[in-house]
Every structure is written in C-alpha cells, then in structure tokens.
Amino acid sequence: MSPTSETAQGGRRLVIVESPAKAKTIKGYLGPGYVVEASVGHIRDLPNGAAEVPDEYTGEVRRLGVDVEHDFQPIYVVNADKKAQVRKLKQLLAESDELFLATDEDREGEAIAWHLQEVLRPKVPVHRMVFHEITKDAIRAAVANPRELNQRMVDAQETRRILDRLYGYEVSPVLWKKVMPKLSAGRVQSVATRLVVERERERIAFRSAEYWDLTGTFATGRGGDASDPSTFTARLSAVDGRRIAQGRDFGPDGRLKSASGQTLHLDEANARALAAALADSAFAVRSVESKPYRRSPYAPFRTTTLQQEASRKLGLGAKATMQVAQKLYENGFITYMRTDSTTLSDTAVAAARAQVTQLYGADYLPEKPRTYAGKVKNAQEAHEAIRPSGDRFRTPAETGLTGDQFRLYELIWKRTVASQMKDATGNSVTVKIGGRASDGRDAEFSASGKTITFHGFMKAYVEGADDPNAELDDRERRLPQVTEGDALSADEITADGHATKPPARYTEASLVKELEEREIGRPSTYASIIGTILDRGYVFKKGTALVPSFLSFAVVNLLEKHFGRLVDYDFTARMEDDLDRIARGEAQSVPWLKRFYFGTQAGDEAGAGAASDAGNGDGDHLGGLKELVTDLGAIDAREISSFPVGNDIKLRVGKYGPYIERGEKDAEGYQKGDIPDDLAPDELTVEYAEELLAKPSGDFELGTDPVSGNQIVAKNGRYGPYVTEVLPEGTPKTGKNAVKPRTASLFKSMSLDTVTLADALKLMSLPRVVGEDAEGVEITAQNGRYGPYLKKGTDSRSLTSEDQIFDITLEEALAIYAQPKQRGRAAAKPPLKELGTDPVSGAPVVVKDGRFGPYVTDGETNATLRTGDSVEEITPERGYELLAEKRAKGPAKKKTAKKTAAKKAPAKKTAAKKTAAKKTTAKKAPAKKTAAAASTATKKAAAPGTED
Q1: d(CA 845, CA 839)
Q2: Distance between CA atoms of 190 and 178, rounded to whole angstroms?
Q3: Which of 369, 538, 737, 935 could form a disulfide with 21 if both were Cys (CB 3.0 to 4.6 A apart)?
C-alpha cells in the first residue's frame, strides 16, 4: 500500500532510521503527522556468547550461534543494549497507522530494515523508504515513492554475516591455543594483515643497490625569461649507445635484472671519471620530440577514492574519514558515503555544470555532460557517487561548516565540480643532448618538459599521490625553445650517487587501493577492517605507514601454513564473487554455505550441495572449514612463533610479547633480550639483536638482603625497570597468610645497568617516615604513579625531585605543609616538541608529556601518541592526523551511575523465532555505541566472526 494524501489525513506515520542525528534532520523535513525515531544501528544479531543463546539450544549451536546441521539457521537475539529502544519502537508503532523503514539503501541497511520488521511484527502497512541524500525534496519523494523490502539483498548480507561468524568463531580459537589468547581471525582482516606482513617480508629480504649517473646544467647562450629559460638540467641517459642503469633496473636482491650488454651500470669511480672527461666537451641538441598533452578530469568520489584522497590531502585515516562523512550525510550536506558508484544523477550534473559556468566561465564547460563508467566489480549502481547534496551545490563558504567537516566537504565539492569541466591540455617535450668526452666516449643526456596551455579542470582540483615525491598533474617543467643542431654549453656536470629503496610500506590509502584492486572484501568495509587490525595490535603506525607487529608475523605464519586457502588472495576474491551472485539471485545461500563449511562429501549430495546449486562454478575453491579446524595436532606452536634472525639468534612471539634468544633455556650461555614495542620487523638486524642481547634482561641479581637473607633482583617489567626480593620456596602466595615480596620501581635517574644492592634496599624501604607534626600525625615520603610526594593523613603534597624522598628533613616537610595547598593543576611543563600549525584549528600543535605518556595537542584537542609513534620521530602530518581522528570520535561519554528501578517479575523468555523462509545469513555485529558516537557509528565494528 503506497502512501497517499488520503492516508496522511488524520493518520500517524512512524519512520525508523539508524541514527539519532539522521532522525533529527529528517524530522525537520516531514510534517506533524510523522514520528521519526532511530533504531541506533542494529537491534538484533547473532549472540556474542553462549550465555545469550536461548536455553533450548545446546552443543555447537550455543558456541556458534548458528545451527550448521539445519540449513545454517542463525539464532538471533535482541542486543542487550537495544532492548529499551525496541520497547520504545514497539510502543510508537502501536500508536501509528503506517511504518516506514528508512535505513540506508545498501545490503546492511536492507538487513537492518528486515530485522526491524521481524522484531516489531507490525500490523499496519509497511513501506521501504529509500533515498541517497537527506534534503527536503529527496525525503518527500522517498515518502511518496516507497518500495518493497529487497529479500535478495537481505539474503546476501545475512550470508556474509553467517560466513564471517563461522570463519571467526572457528579460526580464532586456533590462534588462542597456538599463538596468544584474545586474538581474532576474519575473512578480510586476516588477508589485509597478510598483505602488510608480506610487504614487510619484502623489506627484510631487500638488498640495496648503488648506482650513479650524471646531471648536466646546459645553457643556450641567449637571454631567457619564464616562458623560454636560458638554462636547464638534463640527466645522462646513455654512453656509447648503452642505456644508463636506473633504480628500476635492479631487483630486490640488489642485482641488475638483466645482464644485457645494452645496460651500463656506473659506479662512483666511473661516473666521476666520465664527468671529468666531459668537462670541456661541446654539446648540441640531437633531437626535439614534442607531443600534445591532455589530461581528463578524475571521476567523482566513491568510498575508497574518498578515503585515499582524504588520507593524502587532509591526513585523515579511513575510519576518521568515514566518521566525518557520516556526519556530513546525516546533516544533509552530501549524498550517501558508502557507494561503489561514480555516476551522477542528471540533477547533480546540471548543478555541477551550472557552478562551472558561474565560477570559472563558459570556456571551462564541455559541450556535453561527462559520464563515468564504474570500475568496481559488482558495484551497487543504485547509489550515486559521493557529491554535495541538493539540486544546487552549496559552496564550502555557504555551508557554515568548520574543521574537518569543512575540509572534507570542500574536497568533495571540488572533485564533483571538476568532474564536469574540460580537459587540461598542453605539450610534453623530450630533448636529447649529445657530446663526446675527452676519452672518446659518446654521452647522451635527456630532459623532459611539460607546459599546460589550458588548465581546464585543474583550476578546481588536482588529485594527490601516495608517493610524497611524486609530481602532481598540474606541475609544469619548462624547457628552452631549442631545435635540432643547436649548440649548447655545459655550465656544470656533476656525478650523482643513488641507492635503491625497499618497497614502501602500505599507508591506509594505499592498502585500501590494494584491497580494491585485488577485489578483496567490500569497499564500504575497508575503514572498519583497517581499524580492526590496528586495534588488535596486528599493525601499528609509524607516521602514516602501516607497520606489522611481530605478533602479526606469527598469526600470518600459522594461517599460511595450516589455513593457506583461507588467506589466499584469489580465494578471498572468488568468495566475494560468490556472495555477489547470491545477491543477484544466481546462487543459493544454503548450498554455498554447506560447501564452504563441510566441503565436498562423496556420495552425500545433501550434505555438501552441488557446485551448480552453490553457484560457484566448479566449486573447487570451497570446502572444508570444519575439517581444517578439527585436527590441530600438526600445528607446532613454538615453530609457528619462531623466526631466525642470524648468528643463532631467534625471535620468538611469547604469551607476553616478542623477545629474542640464543641457545637453549637453562643451558650454559643462554641469552635472552626484550624487543622494544615500537620496533619495526625490518629494523631487527643481526647487529641490533646482538646489542639487545648484550643489555641486561630478565632477572639481574644484585645480592642478598643482610636482614631477611632474601635474594634481591632487578627486572625489566611491563611498566618499566624495578627491584624485588625472591621469597624462599614454600612461602604462601595466596590465602590470609600470603606473603607478598617487597617491590619498588627504579627512579628515573636509575637504570638496570647501574642500580646497586644498596639502591635496591633503599627503594624497597619506602615509604620513608620523615617525622611527626605537632599533633603527632606521621609524615611520610613516597614515590607514586605521578612522581614523588609527601603524605600526612589524607593530605598529599608533591616533591620536586625523587632525591628529596630520602633527603627531605622534618623541618622542610613542615614548611611545605605550612604553605596553602595548591588547587588545580601545577604549572604546565614546557612542550617536548613543536610541530607547526594545525590545518583545522589554526592553532600551534605541540607534543607534551602527560600522566599517561606523551600526547599531541592544539590547546583544544589532545591525542595520545600510539604504539610506533615517538617524540623524536613524529612528523607534523602524523600529529595532525592523530588530532583529526580524536576530533572525529567526539567527546568521551561520562560514566553515570545506573538507576535501579523496582524489579518486575521476570517475563518468560522466548527463543528468537526462525523465519518461515529460513533465512540463512546474518548481518554485521554492531559495536556498542555511546550517545556521543551514535550518530556517526551506527554500523557494526569488526569482531571475531564479524567483517562486512
């Protein structure tokens, strides 16, 4: 039943969206007969643990939340934190005459709508309301033109959810047993981690090669100007017809890829000798080749290209980009931000072309509108590209936006307008210069130039590059106007040395690009995937680079050796194709899941399902997850987590982190060393490993306490170096008679190399009694988490240095207490480092030392340095990125005490009902949301068994 003007009269319509922010914006566009409420993300999901599974289910069903023996029926439960919201929605529905499900128009949004319908069980007409932008016209058009729920999209999303649950809940426990507790595996996150690890392996195996060439500065001998310079530089390209070797000619082993006689590898001696031999040579232009230059505009943004450009130009990570974009969408500034499409609606094209004429003139407007073909396989073309909303685009200045929202909107606006502008045109020129050296060798130099005669779309927008040294499209290189045969003089010829560099680590932008090119996962989920591997400790950041941890090496090692198919790039991409076929109705969910989980079972067609039914071609890439995780006896946990370094040194990933060792434990000569938390794997050389082994590690015996007779040792612990006593064997460690060893952290001025037994005994004697005040209250000197201090009853006063703990007298202590106690914060410490001006706030950004370690701040926003960041190495760009991510998260919600209401008699629990249609797939698991984040984080975070 479609809504009409008649149904609106006197009727009440309930519109349900995902987020409160979205609800607030839409409510302003609808009349008084509408009630707009948020579900706050998903309301129902697979259970997070056995405790959430209804009592009627037992065995594997309780563990997995999926009944694999009965067509992979999912067991759905209403999330505990959503029960109150569900009650509210049911109450509003009971008072309504129609229900509009207005969740996002993608697979996940369709699944949310389906779950709402299943849980609320409406008795009134239900409509699926869809829109790509939140504007008054778009919302009213969506109300007037609803559609039915798309069951194919629901099936596809539910299949993904079940698949990810089976993968995560079956493979993650293997990691817990063989590597470390609390790890997770995922269909896409594990493959993404493998990509980062493989790049680091390439860097470890890389051997640099040195090569030399010459640079000549040549003069035409005539006066020049900006359009016709008198001098230019050219690089040596050939000697006696043999091409000079460049970096691209060397392999990762440091050797020339081809030993062909056509390539000449110059070393330093030969390069300098050739430069000297050419010092007085005559040169002439040998050839001038000119070609027309044309560059077309870039397509409008889709999800992945927006993430890449926001990383390059704004320093925003993928997660922060999507959080900011979500706010822009929900507040009506841009169209839906999770899209694979580069197409623009006719309305958007008209708006963009109008602004081209208005802002740049008719000369920049092409005769016909530009169209862009989608490059993404299985793209959801129902969506538009990401663009400013409305039939007239607001310029950034007209929006009233500030900070990251302004910067991201400006980026989207520029890209959209530029996509409807003319090509940039010009000329590219290559000039060859030749001369003969004094020793008879013929040398040829080459120079390339580019001039842009019409900038076209570049007036509005130029795309960034992942390589910071890459030349952008709008960069011109002007050469003199010369012709073949013109004489040139060499002002200077220099020999230049170069070294090949290891392959660059992935950044968030380049990893997103790599995943998309390999067709792994869904582009809309890449931000959450990268967030997951960062949060799990598989990857950390150094600047913008993604560095794999040693833990990720162990995890990937296990998965490659024992679950190779599951982290195979082609296999993962083919699974994505299969899931898209299910979405198109070309394959069936249950047979496909059977083949993935149980594999091909000879003579048991019902058990496995035919490949044709599964819709995956020959079906060979599926089959057997259950069998893979059943027999773990062949997995040697120690071997999986051990990696040779050299000189008989091995790196091991232990329960509490990575370390290196040489020799067998408890054997003579055994050595063990700790690994710094922020050490990149390619930096663990044999030489550095030897240094680490030479440092004190483990127990460092200091001597015997003359009073207790206990051995005193120094250790390097999780929270820094400390001293402690070794209690005799048999000393009770638990119960009311338990004895705890005396322990004390080293002062900042101490180290394991220099601490003595006397130092240790003094430290363990703390707190030191300084004396008593006039009223007999004891005053003690202590060392605490935030530094040295005095304590008298409940009154604490800070000391200025650790040495004062042992030196301060009673008189000095009483004098401190005689002073009024300082309220508020102490005087601010000077910054550790200045980074520059933040591009968002315009305030100076500095690095400071705080209670919980160093952090960056612009005076308004504070962001703690992450693993891999250091005060010495942090760059301004990394500092701005950390602040941007912190702003995107919004303020932390303050914890409030829960109100306890009078308990009602518990209602009888009912098991989550299975649908008659026997749905076989599930949706994303939502992360718990805070009120502050509800508007920007309604999609589920990745967890074991949750991907996309």
Answers
A1: 10
A2: 16
A3: 935
Residues 6+ apart with CB under 8 A from 49: none
Helix (H, G, I), strand (E, B) or coil at 400: coil
Please give the model's pTM, rounded to 2 decimal places. Answer: 0.75
Burial status of residue 763 (CB atoms within 10 A of its CB: 0-12, 13-18, 19 or more): buried
What would the mean pLDDT of 820-840 be, rounded to a whole number? 73
Token pair, residue 737, equals 């008679």
Beta bridge partners of 545: 507, 542
Angle at 692 between CA 689 and CA 697, to 5 degrees: 135
The order of strands in the sheet holding 768-772 is 768-772, 778-784, 787-792, 795-798
Helix axes 318-330, 508-517, angle to 10 degrees: 80
Statement: residue 609 has pLDDT above 80:
no
CA R_g for the chain = 34
Rounded CA-CA distance 454/423 in Å is 8
Nearest alpha carbon to residue 44 among 940, 886, 727, 779:
940
Nearest to 61 by CA among 181, 166, 154: 166
Maximum alpha-carbon separation in the chain: 103
Question: Hunting for tokens 């530029």 — which residue is that?
Answer: 418
Q: What DSSP designation does 900 have?
A: P
- Who contacts 451 (Cβ-Cβ below 8 Å, separation ≥6)? 293, 426, 427, 429, 476, 478
Which neighbouring-strand residues pair with 442?
A: 436
Q: Are 173 and 183 in contact (CB under 8 A)?
A: no
Beta strands at 242-244 and 263-264: parallel, antiparallel or unpaired:
parallel
Please state, in angstroms and rounded to a whole number, the distance separating the CA atoms of residues 591 and 614.
Answer: 5
Cα 933 to Cα 323: distance, rounded to the nearest angstrom = 9
**Which tokens go with 26?**
């839409």
Q: How many angstroms separate the CA atoms of 180 and 189, rounded?
A: 17
Closest CA to 256 of 706, 625, 248: 248
Kindly report the number of other CB atoms within 10 A of residue 480's CB atom: 22
The two structure tokens encoding residue 798: 């800070």
Spatial CA neighbour of 122 closest among 149, 93, 148, 102 = 93
Residues annotated as part of the active site: 336
Torsion from C-alpha of 742, 748, 754, 755, nearest 10 degrees: -20
- Which residues make Cβ contacts (< 8 Å) with residue 91, sequence separation at least 6? none
Q: What are phi and psi of 450, to 5 degrees?
A: -145, 130
Q: Mean pLDDT over residues 94-116, rounded?
A: 92
Q: What percent of the chain is predicted at pLDDT more than 90?
A: 51
Nearest to 244 by CA among 210, 267, 213, 279: 213
> From CA 153, how far away is CA 157, in angstroms rounded?
6
Tokens of 36: 């707009």
Integer Cα distance of 312 and 459 in angstroms = 19
CA 340 – CA 380 distance, rounded (Å):
6
Please tell me the distance from the alpha carbon of residue 842 to that of residue 836, in angstroms, as a whole number. Answer: 9
Query: Is residue 89 within 8 Å of residue 37, measured between CB atoms?
Result: yes
Residue 835 to residue 847: CA distance in whole angstroms: 8
User: CA 836 to CA 858: how far, in whole Å?
Assistant: 10
Q: What tokens does 670 get?
A: 């055994």
In sequence order, what are the beta bridge partners of 78?
A: 44
**Residue type, position 262, single letter:** Q
What's phi and psi for 103, nearest 5 deg? -75, 170
pLDDT level of residue 233 (50, 70, 90 thresholds): very high
Q: Looking at residue 620, what is its pLDDT? A: 44
630: buried, middle or exposed (CB in 10 Å: 19+, 13-18, 0-12)? Answer: exposed
